[in-house]
Amino acid sequence: MAKARKSLIKIKPKRYKDGEIVKVSFMVMHPMATGMGRDKKTKKIIPAKYINSVKFVYNGKEITHMTVWESLSVNPVFTTYMKINGKGKLTVTYTDNTGEVNEKTKKIKPRG
Amino acid sequence: MQRRDFFKKLGTVTAVAAVMPAMSFAASAPKPTGPNKMDFKTALNAITGGKKPIKSNKVHLKAPEIAENGAVVPVTVTVDSPMTDSNYVKAIHILDGKNSNARCIDVFLTPANGKAMFSTRIKLGGTQDVTAVVELSDGTFLIASQSVKVTIGGCG
C-alpha cells in the first residue's frame, strides 16, 4: 500500500505569463535510508528506503526524469526550470526502491 | 491466591500472543537490500562510456566550501546552454568522491526546460570532491568539480 507522503510543488515566481521560464521545485518528506545506518536504540540496521526515480510530466509531455541513488539528503528537494506552455497540469511521479509509487499534481495557470 | 496466580498467567499468555504475530510479520517482511557500492572511476565510466570528459568553464558547480553538516549539502549545477531543439543539455550527473556509492543523481533534461539548471541537497560522509558531469546533445561530456570540507559526516 502506498502511503501518502507530504510533498509540495513550488513555482517561482508565483505569477507567470505564457512562455515564461519559471523555477520549479519539488519537495517530499522521505527518510532516504541508505541501508548502512543503525538504529541508536535497537542497534539494528535500518533497511534501505530511498527514492529511485522522479518524473516531471507537464500536460502529458515528459519534461525531466531523474535516476536517484541513496546519497541524497533526507527530505530531498529537486529544483529545475520549466517553460510555461499554456494551461494544464504538472504531475510529479516518484518511485521508491521498495516499490512505493506516489504522485503530486499542481495546476498551471498562466496570467496575462 | 489461586485467583491471583491465574490472572498473572493470563497476563503473560496474552502478552506473548500479542508479540508473536508481530515477530512472525517481521520475519516475513522483505529483507533489506544492501547498499549499492560503486567507486568514482566505475561510476564515471558507466556514465561516459569510456569517453574522456572535458574540463569546461561552461559548467558552474555551486557547493559550499565548508559544510558544517554533511547530511545536508546544497549543490547547484548550472550550464550555459541555449536549450534549443538542436543544442541542449541532455543530462546532468552529480557524483561524489568518497561515499560508498559515488553516484548521487542523474538528471535527464529536455529543451522544454528552458534553462539548464538543477539543484538538490546531498549527503557527504566526509571531506571530498563533488563532481558534475554534463552530457550535451552532440555527445560531448563536460566536467567540473569542487572540494567540500565536511566537519560532521552525514552518512548513516
What does this structure look like?
- The complex is a heterodimer of chains A (112) and B (156).
- Chain A has 112 residues and is an all-beta fold.
- Chain A has one domain: Immunoglobulins (Immunoglobulin-like), CATH 2.60.40.10.
- Chain A is built from no helices and seven strands.
- In chain A, the strands form two sheets. In chain A, strands 4-3-6-7 form a four-stranded antiparallel sheet, with no helix packed on it. A three-stranded antiparallel sheet of chain A has the order 1-2-5, with no helix packed on it.
- The termini of chain A are far apart.
- The model of chain A has no long low-confidence stretch (mean pLDDT 89).
- Chain B folds into two domains: 31 residues; 113 residues, Immunoglobulin-like (Sandwich), CATH 2.60.40.
- In chain B, 23% of the residues lie in helices and 37% in strands.
- Chain B is elongated, with a radius of gyration of 25 Å.
- The interface between A and B is large, with 37 and 39 residues.
- Strand 4 of chain A pairs antiparallel with strand 6 of chain B, so a sheet runs across the interface.
Write the layout of secondary structure elements.
The complex is a heterodimer of chains A (112) and B (156).
Chain A (H helix, E strand, L loop, with lengths): L6 E6 L8 E8 L22 E8 L2 E8 L8 E7 L4 E9 L4 E8 L4
Antiparallel strand pairs in A: 1-2, 2-5, 3-4, 3-6, 6-7
Chain B lengths: L1 H27 L11 H9 L5 E2 L3 E4 L3 E4 L3 E7 L9 E8 L6 E6 L8 E6 L5 E9 L4 E12 L4
